[in-house]
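Usage example:
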Amino acid sequence: MKVLTFGITREIIGAAEITLSGNSVTSVEQLRSVLTERYPKLSQLNSLAIAVNEVYANDEIQLNEEDVVALIPPVSGG
Amino acid sequence: MIKNIEISADSLSLQRCRDFVNSPANGAEAVFIGTVRNATNGQAVSKLFFEAYESMAIKEMNLIADQALHSFRISKIAIHHRIGELGIGEIPVIIAVGSAHRKAAFQACQYAIDTLKEKVPIWKKEYLTSGEVWVSAHP
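Running the assembly step on the lines above writes:
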């Protein structure tokens, strides 16, 4: 599945998007642990929300190969 | 149309926001204008950079407008946000609300800017003398 990065998460991961296999990551919770293991600096953020197909998702949400996931570090618009 | 949502790389127009919410049935227009401040926590800021997850930000801004129209007795709302690089004094956000009476316009305007700052996926980087910082990213 496609994982989009924004703000500081783009700098931590070093790419605007990465691709993860839907076989290895089946829930938002699992996605969090895979990403924080691979990119430990993500766990130093004030918060990290996850959006699935442009909607904020809680950890229980299941993921499919065709989902577009986005990493949402603390927002600061306005 | 009773709501007008935009994200733009060009300068925002107060006049366009006001024109959108203006209506003969209104007795009030409340407008919030965010501006780029020259300092943060005592440190000089030279400019800001705004980035958006544009498609989702538009959805979230529409949700805010829908909720404001539902919760307060207002007739119209415009929410415009700018992205890209902005200098001191420039305008990153305008929220305009039209209503029959002033109280609802003030309340809806405050609700909209507070919720935008909390929910809409837009990020601000500050350029300080000591370097660049994504706002609120770290404790």
